[in-house]
Amino acid sequence: MFVLKVVLLLLSPFIVLYWLLKTYVRRVDAKYRQQNGLRDDVKIIAFFHPFCNSGGGGERVLWVALRALHHKYPDYHYVVYTGDIEAKPEEIKAKAKKQFQIDLNFDISFVYLKKRYIVGDRLYPIFTLLGQSIGSVFLGFEALFQCVPDVYIDSMGFSFTFPVFRYIGGSRVGAYVHYPTISTDMLQMVTNTKTSYNNRAIISNSRVLTSGKLLYYKLFAYLYGLIGRMALVVMVNSSWTQRHVESIWKRKARTVYPPCNTDDLKRLSLQNKKELQIVSIGQIRPEKNHSLQVIAFKEFIDKLSSEGIDTQSAKLVIIGSCRDDEDRQRLNDLKQLSRSLDIESNVEFKVNIPYEELKDLIEESSIGVHTMVNEHFGIGVVECLAAGLITLTHASGGPKLDLITDGVNGFLATDSQSFCQKLYNIYNLNKSKLNDIRLNARKSADRFSEQEFETLFLTSIEEILH
């Protein structure tokens, strides 16, 4: 009896805090519904997407998912939690139209989050994963304290918000996972003392620091697994992501391939290609590994030049978007790398360009390249396939498992030497073989259409909507 009293005494502050939070959340819900003229029986469907105005593949998923939901359930109220406080709702919708050709001509309530900076990696030079995850909990509370949804969908990978919305907000929780916060590949990389953008040399070169980081990763993976099991519905974007999510979350996840505008791109001409023009599509982020593209391209044109081939017309066109000052600094670093390799005139950077310009660049290019290690899916890769480019990607992740069959509809490589050699091999292929690969590439892109995504997404999410 004494022990029970002690336990109750220790728990009482948490019980009171929980009751106060639940009471406050009910008031928030009543106030939000009153301000927006919503009856109590109108369902609020909210997407947690703090970077909704970034213009990447994840944002295409968001907008197509919202459009599909509204088309099927027009009486629901739709919310997007965003940290893009400088962008007005009409500007966000206009960018979706300009970037993706997606019309959002229905009501979307944008709930602005002023503390988005707390999920940025620059605040956490060490224990980055843990810091960002804890930061997302506070950002989740900021979101919940403005709007309490009936259905909460995390579409950016902030899974540590699940308990906030499920247990405090009383929401039914769903997730669309683009990339696991931690994966078994990351654990293996640390175990093998491999240096990477998320495993600095000072750690990989030290046995003590490696052991410490491995313990930290294992503890975080365990916590990540507990959190993941709080979602009622889990969708993933590729076989690679499915494998890692199911391994760590210990639950089933359904693969719903991201939507790509394949029909539009398949109408582009396969004629009059610039033989030595290579295009790259992807946000300017460290994991995209753009420096490998620049280095491999330099090796490729040097190889051609050594054989007396004129490379003056050779061009690497890097198309991407920058989210913030850190991305813009990475862009400047890439430009500096091009200058240092003396190929500045052969490398072009196209940042935040409209969709029509993207199509023009793809149509005139001959090769598409993508160098991210363990890319979760690769919408940019699918866009290259649909456009009939000879597509060369890193032999890992989603591109290897779901997108590219080496030598059939594209090619795979691992480092600058193999990327250079594959580019050289492609250059030397005869026109008949090139045409076969282009046609195979287009055919393989059919299963990644917007229509296919909408059907699978709606089927998967339906159980938490009613």
From TrEMBL:
Function: GDP-Man:Man(3)GlcNAc(2)-PP-Dol alpha-1,2-mannosyltransferase that operates in the biosynthetic pathway of dolichol-linked oligosaccharides, the glycan precursors employed in protein asparagine (N)-glycosylation. The assembly of dolichol-linked oligosaccharides begins on the cytosolic side of the endoplasmic reticulum membrane and finishes in its lumen. The sequential addition of sugars to dolichol pyrophosphate produces dolichol-linked oligosaccharides containing fourteen sugars, including two GlcNAcs, nine mannoses and three glucoses.
Membrane topology label: Single-pass membrane protein
Protein name: GDP-Man:Man(3)GlcNAc(2)-PP-Dol alpha-1,2-mannosyltransferase
The keyword Membrane belongs to this UniProt entry's keyword annotation: yes
Record-annotated ALG11 mannosyltransferase N-terminal domain positions: 43-249
GO MF entries: GDP-Man:Man(3)GlcNAc(2)-PP-Dol alpha-1,2-mannosyltransferase activity
Pfam family, one: ALG11_N
Keyword Transmembrane helix: yes
One term under GO cellular component: endoplasmic reticulum membrane
Sorted UniProt keywords: Endoplasmic reticulum, Glycosyltransferase, Membrane, Transferase, Transmembrane, Transmembrane helix
Leader peptide range in chain numbering: none
Pathway: Protein modification; protein glycosylation
EC numbers on record: 2.4.1.131
Broad class of where this protein is predominantly found: endoplasmic reticulum
Domain Glycosyl transferase family residue range list: 266-443
